Structures are given as structure tokens and as C-alpha cells.
UniProtKB/TrEMBL annotation:
It is a multi-pass membrane protein. It is found in: Cell membrane. One of its GO terms (cellular component) is plasma membrane. PANTHER family: HIGH-AFFINITY CHOLINE TRANSPORT PROTEIN, HIGH-AFFINITY CHOLINE TRANSPORT PROTEIN-RELATED. It comes from the Bacteria. GO terms for molecular function: transmembrane transporter activity. Keywords: Cell membrane, Membrane, Transmembrane, Transmembrane helix, Transport. Belongs to the BCCT transporter (TC 2.A.15) family. This is Choline transporter. The chain crosses the membrane at residues 12-32, 68-86. The keyword Membrane applies. The lineage of its organism: Bacteria, Pseudomonadati, Pseudomonadota, Alphaproteobacteria, Hyphomicrobiales.
Length: 125
């Protein structure tokens, strides 16, 4: 409701979301992604792989993937889910973001399909 007091400050929320979002990325992809792109990437030919230029391109790709525009997508998705969960009392699922379009039909096959698509998209990329 509009009269509810937040349990955490904006800074605390930002810190928690940032930590949760980047935690696994730093753990695994901080090393794996630049190495992967150093060995082969779409911007240089196979003959130029594993060169100084390949290393520079690999770092550019990694920074592009982990830069501000990616976090913007995470933030928009999170804000949509948070709004419908805390202001409208809907579940914290992707189907809730479709509520303005489909209304209560999100509790049927349309909502199930949206949630399944989100799960498969997350698992299989």
C-alpha cells in the first residue's frame, strides 16, 4: 500500500540487488568470458585469435556484456515485478508483468506459458 514504510533504504536495496545480480557473474564469468572471447569471437578472424588485438577485443566484449545497459534491463524487470508484487498483491513471477495486458487471465495458460518461457530462457539462454 502507499502508506507502507519501506523496510530497507534505497541504498540498501540497490546494494542487495547489485550484490545478488553480479555475485555469480564475478565468481565465474569474470575469468571465463574474456578467455572465451580471447580464443574466438565474432569481431576478429580465426587467424587473429590469441593475439594482443584479440585480448583487447575480448575485454571490450566483456565490459559491454557487464556494463550499464545490461543493468538497465535488470532494473526495469525488477521494478516491474516489484510494482505488481507490492502495490497490486500479485505473485513475484513474470506472469505478473503481463497483468495490464491480460488481467486475471494471467492465472491461466497464458501466465503458465509466460513463466515457463522465462524459466527456459534463463536456463538455456
Amino acid at each position: 500500500e502507499n502508506t507502507d514504510k519501506p523496510e530497507f533504504s534505497n541504498f540498501a536495496w540497490f546494494s542487495m540487488l547489485f550484490g545478488a545480480g553480479i555475485g555469480i557473474g564475478i565468481l565465474f564469468w569474470s575469468i571465463a568470458e574474456p578467455i572465451y572471447h580471447f580464443q574466438s569471437n565474432p569481431f576478429i578472424g580465426k587467424d587473429e585469435a590469441m593475439t594482443v588485438e584479440a585480448a583487447q577485443v575480448a575485454m571490450r566484449i566483456s565490459i559491454f556484456h557487464w556494463g550499464l545497459h545490461g543493468w538497465g534491463l535488470f532494473a526495469v524487470t525488477g521494478l516491474i515485478l516489484a510494482y505488481f508484487a507490492y502495490r497490486k498483491g500479485l505473485p513475484i513471477t513474470i506472469r505478473s508483468s503481463l497483468y495490464p495486458i491480460f488481467g486475471d487471465r494471467i492465472y491461466g495458460p497464458i501466465g503458465h506459458a509466460a513463466d515457463l518461457l522465462a524459466v527456459f530462457g534463463t536456463v538455456f539462454g
